[in-house]
UniProtKB/TrEMBL annotation:
Keyword match Membrane: no
This protein's UniProt keywords: Methyltransferase, Transferase
An MF annotation (GO) of this entry: S-adenosylmethionine-dependent methyltransferase activity
Record's protein name: Class I SAM-dependent methyltransferase
UniProt cross-references to InterPro entries, sorted A to Z: Methyltransf_11, Methyltransf_Superfamily, SAM-dependent_MTases_sf
Pfam families found in the cross-reference section: Methyltransf_11 (PF08241)
Signal peptide (UniProt feature, chain positions): none
GO BP term, example: methylation
Domain Methyltransferase type: start-end pairs: 100-196
Keyword Transmembrane: no
Domain of life: Bacteria
Gene3D superfamilies: Vaccinia Virus protein VP39 (3.40.50.150)
Length: 303
């Protein structure tokens, strides 16, 4: 998420017609580093798709440069808390399984899955992120199938996948995350697992800051409009969407999936690192990640 609190602190005007807050320029900061205009808007799927694709194409190289070492070339990291699939084993034994990584970015998780014997397909909306994934493949020599696709309209056959997973891919950015749940339920074989991590809904209320400043409720948990950043022409250039815990449960259940667990990790003791709003100060009090563990029911579970 961007930094609405910083933006609000700088003053600026609110365009009440389109709910975009323009932000006063901050002295001493280059033009291209100035905080963007932002707003909370009801966003349509096409706008979210266009903004996410452009944003992640532009941000891919910087994202991998900033986080690539922590993520590892071929490791499966669920979240900024550093939870690894090698410890949690939320996906079960993946050897010989067909696994789909949703919003794979640099496909680090897909490569870990490949190393553990899975047949893997990683897909992402962003060609920029997939180019980074191909560069990792060249460096590591670990090949995974990569596809450019949108999580709300999967180019995969019904019941063709044993396991689907995602570490913060697609779900926090799409306008209709219920459509993602339905698409995953469609492509999963009965009994197949779908496990995804995403921003914890509670952080919607807090400023985007890992320190004490991030421990103030400043925005309504119940506001389900998308956080959006805008360029000078008013075009959305970044969107992040919000679902309450209840919304997520309803979307999972409505897709016909079984919800097994919601993991709300604590910040690890002794870890001083930060990642955006994730960090040791705020992380002592509130969760910033949620991991949903679900599966498509078997015929027996349905009878
Ligand atoms: C925070 S990154 C996470 C990437 C990777 N899982 C990781 O842990 O580094 C979010 C990813 O979701 C992708 N994404 C956003 N919207 C998407 C959509 N509608 N369909 C597929 N991928 C999407 C972005 O392009 C980006 O690569």
């Amino acid at each position: 998420m961007g930094s609405p609190d910083d933006a609000a602190a700088t003053g600026g005007a609110i365009d009440s017609a389109n709910m975009i807050n323009s932000v006063d320029a901050v002295d001493g900061i280059a033009d291209d580093q100035q905080p963007p205009a932002y707003g909370y808007l009801d966003i349509d799927p096409d706008t979210a798709r266009r903004a996410s694709r452009t944003y992640w194409d532009d941000a891919a190289a910087d994202y991998q440069a900033e986080h690539g070492t922590f993520l590892g070339d071929s490791d499966f990291c669920w979240s900024p808390e550093g939870l690894r699939e090698s410890e949690l084993r939320l996906l079960g034994d993946v050897a010989g399984r067909t696994v789909l990584e949703v919003g794979c970015g640099g496909a680090q998780c897909a490569r870990w899955l490949r190393r553990h014997g899975a047949r893997v397909v990683g897909f992402d909306l962003s060609g920029g992120q997939l180019a980074q994934a191909r560069a990792y493949t060249a460096r590591t020599g670990i090949e995974v199938a990569l596809v450019q696709a949108d999580a709300v309209a999967l180019p995969f056959a019904d019941e063709s996948v044993d396991v689907a997973c995602s570490a913060f891919g697609a779900v926090p950015f799409v306008a209709d995350s219920g459509a993602v749940m339905r698409e995953i339920a469609r492509v999963l074989r009965p009994g197949g697992r779908w496990v995804f991590s995403t921003t914890h809904p509670f952080v919607w209320c807090l400023p985007d800051d890992p320190d004490e400043n991030g421990l103030r409720v400043f925005h309504s948990y119940f506001d389900q409009r998308a956080y959006t950043e805008h360029d000078d022409s008013g075009q959305a250039i970044y969107t992040e969407t919000h679902r309450t815990i209840g919304d997520r449960v309803r979307e999972i259940v409505a897709a016909g999936l079984i919800l097994h667990d919601i993991i709300e990790p604590e910040w690890p003791a002794g870890e001083e690192r930060t990642w955006g709003q994730w960090g040791p100060v705020r992380g002592r009090y509130v969760p910033s990640t949620s991991i949903f563990v679900t599966s498509r029911p078997t015929a027996r579970q349905l009878s």
